[in-house]
TrEMBL record:
Domain Nudix hydrolase as annotated: residue spans: 169-301
Similarity-based family: Belongs to the Nudix hydrolase family.
Organism the protein comes from: Streptomyces eurythermus
Annotated transmembrane regions: none
UniProt-listed InterPro entries: NUDIX_hydrolase-like_dom_sf (IPR015797), NUDIX_hydrolase_dom (IPR000086)
Domain of life: Bacteria
UniProt name for this protein: NUDIX domain-containing protein
Region (Disordered) residue spans: 61-80
């Protein structure tokens, strides 16, 4: 379950993006601010707004809410409100989480928060907050699904917000295959910490899309600067791939090949344990994350003299 602090943080972040909705969500905000004897002063539900490439919205005929959106109340074991929404999609439509990806416009933030009076048995009269998260359809689902045009969405406030979402999947993560003129590759030893991708492994530097990133190249240049103070001498797209995140969502990734010459021990590393150069022959002996070995070997083969 989610703490009051978690929900208040999520609401505050939402209102920073949608300040005109402060009055609409005043009851929810007030309930989260007041000291209550009950652990859940707001009855939270979490819904999914899934958009396909034809800009249609996934409809769940058997959804418990009248909105027709897949939605559910949180359960113990749900990692986050977003994870609850993903569970609802699978349970109510049969579409697995791996067929979905995040949108660049909203990433993990809710596209909409809808208030309403609710019947909360633990706190009668407490408000409801339906947290709605947007996803794109990354793969054609094997199961039959019901879709409706975005223009037919009954909720006016939500209909306006999905207008700019085109359903086109784009890379939301960028990584750099950094090499030098000696043919070595710069790898990043990640922290041994729960909740992160490939903990305790050697991997590529990189990270996820953030507001202000207009292209994957913007993302990787920002990440290299923030994480290690690296400014590559040359940068070019190498390939696109897909990975799964901690929630099971598909994450489209653009891999860049980046030429950089320097001493990694002098870099201001802000995340992880260390950076080090490795020749391709040594990389296979490391504990690696994801497809790092394959990427290094593929790039090294291309660099070999014909």
């Amino acid at each position: 379950m989610f703490s009051r602090t978690d929900l208040r943080t999520l609401l505050d972040s939402y209102l920073l993006r949608h300040p005109t909705e402060s009055a609409r969500l005043a009851t929810v905000a007030a309930a989260l601010d007041v000291a209550h004897s009950t652990p859940d002063p707001v009855l939270v539900t979490c819904s999914a707004v899934v958009i396909d490439r034809a800009r249609r919205i996934l409809h769940a005929p058997n959804a418990p809410a009248s909105t027709g959106l897949p939605g559910a109340k949180p359960r113990d074991g749900d990692r986050s409100p977003l994870a609850t929404a993903l569970r609802a999609v699978h349970e109510q439509t049969g579409i697995p989480t791996s067929d979905l990806c995040l949108t660049p416009q909203h990433v993990r933030a809710p596209i909409d928060i809808a208030p309403g009076p609710g019947a909360n048995s633990r706190a009668p009269g407490a408000p409801i907050a339906d947290l709605r998260f947007a996803f794109y359809l990354a793969h054609t689902p094997s199961t039959a699904a019901h879709w409706q045009p975005a223009a037919d969405v009954a909720l006016a406030e939500l209909r306006a917000k999905v207008t700019g979402l085109d359903g086109q999947v784009t890379p939301l993560n960028a990584s750099a295959l950094i090499y030098n003129q000696r043919g070595e590759y710069l790898l990043h030893l990640r922290d041994m910490r729960e909740g992160i991708w490939t903990p305790g492994c050697w991997a590529l530097l990189g990270g996820g899309h953030e507001p202000g990133d207009h292209t994957p190249q913007d993302t990787i240049l920002r990440e290299l600067k923030e994480e290690a103070g690296i400014a590559p001498q040359r940068l070019e797209a190498f390939l696109d791939e897909e990975v799964r995140d901690a929630d099971g969502l598909t994450v489209p990734v653009r891999i860049f090949a980046a030429l950089w010459e320097g001493d990694p021990s002098r870099l201001p590393l802000t995340e992880g344990v260390m950076l080090a150069w490795f020749p391709p022959a040594t990389v296979s002996r490391l504990r690696l994350g994801g497809g790092t070995l394959d990427l290094v070997q593929r790039h090294a083969r291309l660099a070999e003299p014909a």
